[in-house]
Specification:
Elements (H helix, E strand, L loop, with lengths): L1 H105 L1
């Protein structure tokens, strides 16, 4: 019976040692995978940050160009309206002169 108990104890110790070794091995594997994933995520984060900055700069430049184009168009519209206003003032002055001339000829 002592022989059986000692075999069971040795087997139990062997199984325990194997579990401990497998557990240690899995822990080391997990740490390695975790470290690798952290590095990959950091690299992706840096890459995404650089891409975002590039897209942001491109968008800023396009908005600046668009703003400049709009300002040019509004400047042209303002010039046209200013010219139209001058023409209307001259036309009103001409009409007043014509009416004044008509009234004076009737007297």
């Amino acid at each position: 019976m002592d022989d059986l108990n000692s075999k069971i104890d040795r087997l139990s110790d062997y199984v325990h040692a194997e579990f401990k070794a497998v557990r240690s091995e899995m822990k080391d594997e997990f740490i390695a995978v975790r470290t690798e994933m952290k590095e990959e995520f950091a690299a992706v984060r840096i890459e995404m940050r650089e891409e975002f900055r590039a897209v942001r700069s491109e968008m800023k430049e396009e908005f600046r160009a668009f703003r400049s184009e709009i300002q040019t168009e509004f400047g042209a519209i303002h010039s046209r309206l200013d010219g139209l206003q001058r023409s209307m003032v001259l036309m009103m002055a001409t009409i007043l002169v014509a009416f004044a001339s008509l009234i004076l000829t009737q007297l």
